[in-house]
Amino acid sequence: MKSFDDLVAEAEAADVSGWGFDWLAGRASEERPPWGYARSLAQRLAGVQSALDLDTGGGEVLGEAPAFPPVMHATEAWPPNARKARERLAARGVQVVQTASGAALPFADASFDLVTSRHPVSPDWVEIHRVLKPGGHYFAQHVGPASAFELIEHFLGPLPGERLLRDPYAEAAAARVAGLTVTDLRTASCRMMFHDVGAVVWILRKCVWWVPDFSVRKYRDALLALDGRMRRGEPFVAHSARHLVEARR
User: Fold this and answer.
1) What is the DSSP string of 101-112?
2) What is the pTM (predicted TM-score) of this model?
3) Of all residues in the chain, what percent carry a pLDDT higher than 70?
């Protein structure tokens, strides 16, 4: 294994734009939920005439679909990701719209047969209901409560209040209040393993909301503790929380 400083320098220099995780190959792994979101998404896209993908990132997951409906839009708020999504999807006829966090969706009422999202930042159920056609569906994989908190709390300490956020049943209740009928709700806990400290530095640079004030300098001691464990052959284990949500207008 490379030295601590070399692993950290490599991770700090690596690109973290977009929503791909290929850089972690051989360094970290994460189990996938049992429902196969990307496959199910592709099947649903093939069966509608219009669709909207929210918080599409760099379009990585949406781009896996072999076919799109005649009308296909995607939104993304972070400018570097919006640019990547356009580069990836525009040639396939997808209209990528850069949006502002918390703003109304820039689409007319009842515009889409299907609204989708993989890991939305904060689902706006009223807006989702508004842009769906009557009889249209919402299909998404959300991040669940306390996801990766073993790693987050290694740096920040116990976060009992934050562990309660993103509750799938509270989200389903909010969807119903907005007028949607929740037709499916499934949850999964997926094992994550980090094998070197560079993988930890990289993921914290990419998922900046996990440890918002992260820097190698500030958290050097915590990183050194992880590095020592990993050099003894003990990968750091955490768990991601996911839930699948399907609803109908």
Assistant:
1) TTPPPSS-TT-E
2) 0.92
3) 100
